[in-house]
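Supplementary Text 2. Reproducibility record for the structural model of the 356-residue chain.

All settings were left at their defaults, and a single model was retained for analysis rather than an ensemble. We include the record here because the model underlies the residue-level annotations in Supplementary Table 4.
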Amino acid sequence: MSLKYKCPECGTPLGFEGLCWRCRAKHHREEVNNWTDEEIQKKINQVIERLKTSKEDEFYKTDECDIFQDLMTRGVDIKEISKVACEREIYYPSELYYKASEEIRDTIIEKIMSTKSADDGGRFLQCLAMIGDKKSQDTLYELKINPRPWRKKLYVDSDIYAEEGGWTFDSKNNYIKLNYDKCFSFEIGEKKDENGTFIARRRGEKCPHCGGEMLDILVIDGRDERFSFLGLDGITTVSCCPNCVTLCEGISTKFKLDGTSEVLDYEGEEENYFSEDIIDEMINNKFVVSVKEKPLFYGAFGDDVSTIGGFASWVQDWEYRVSRVWKENEIPCSNSLGYYNGFSRRNFIYRNLPKL
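Retained model, structure tokens:
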């Protein structure tokens, strides 16, 4: 049965009259990106006023929480927001405390040390991870070595909580950076350029599990000056079956800096849900990499944009992969990219961690 309506901008079939979610998200992103300094300050004040009247478990349900996330995509300094959130004892979402002041950090540490609640302890650990300074690191390290009684009711140690802030530490408290401090986004251009960094091309192979089309879902030219922060002096090609990859656990692709890659064995689907029309739509995109650098949280709160670098848009909780030992010039890639309608949903967050 065909749907009655179509999006008036892109023609996507819909069960309702109006814009599809993609076009609505596009317009909202454009509006946020065009906020003036005066408008940004008004938005900050609006968030602060809502925080002043919200209870602990209410703020994240409000429109002002969405506005706060929009402000983060603009790279706005949120120290004033962090102060009010701490005064009101509102600890979710943890991004409220991103790079918060030393005074707030010390308050969070005091609460961690005094609480007897595992639920509260977990929230405080996430906030401290977002603050992310040296004292935060030392505190989380101490909590791993000498955990509080409520740690038994949590699923993971404090070093895993640190990962939400884009970092962690090893057994000797050496700092390990997980996120990149630069961010570029994919944007719709005039035409797709397969001579640089791009999304999706046919690989010319069939998936051994579902029989679907295999794709080079992402190609990154590490020689591009914009991507020097990745430390990839060559071309990386991430290959997959778009139908099966989201079910893969662990490493799914091994690639070399000469642009070749090898899809590794993993458990896939028997049925292929990706028709030729969907594959064609994926291949015939016009995504190009932004010329200008974006704020680190540019792609962290929605599905409307894909980024290289910055904070990821995790589907559930954060999850970073640690590489195995590979031969020289070989790099592993997990399924941490995720996909939405075939396009990269999360940020490219592979990090060359110390080899095990």
